Sequence to fold (126 residues):
Amino acid sequence: QVQLVESGGGLVPPGESLRLSCQASGQAFRTYSMGWFRQAPGKEREFVAGIKGNGGRPIYADSTEGRFTMSRDNAKNTVDLKMNSLKTGDTAVYYCAASNRLITSTQRRASAYHYWGRGTQVTVSS
Fold:
């Protein structure tokens, strides 16, 4: 029902920054909880950051908190992920995800999100 399109990925050296964006369709964007996940080859999809539909304080994975910042703009139907001090371990495909029925205890689980973008590649390498 809702379509998500990520953008902003690319190749950057360690220590640099990138900003990812997710553009969502639909009239009820503000009712969706949004998440960022990432998946590297041979690894499970892991939680990066999440934010509820009405905003509030985002939550982060331990590996990204303090370096990454998630935000949303309900007037534009967008969510962003600013990534600072990138490490080679951040290399992955990054996915935007949405859920219109989510409780706080499941916010870090990929299975709690029912709508996904196609992903954008982030490669951190010198």
Q: What stands out?
A: The chain is about 0% helix and 50% strand.
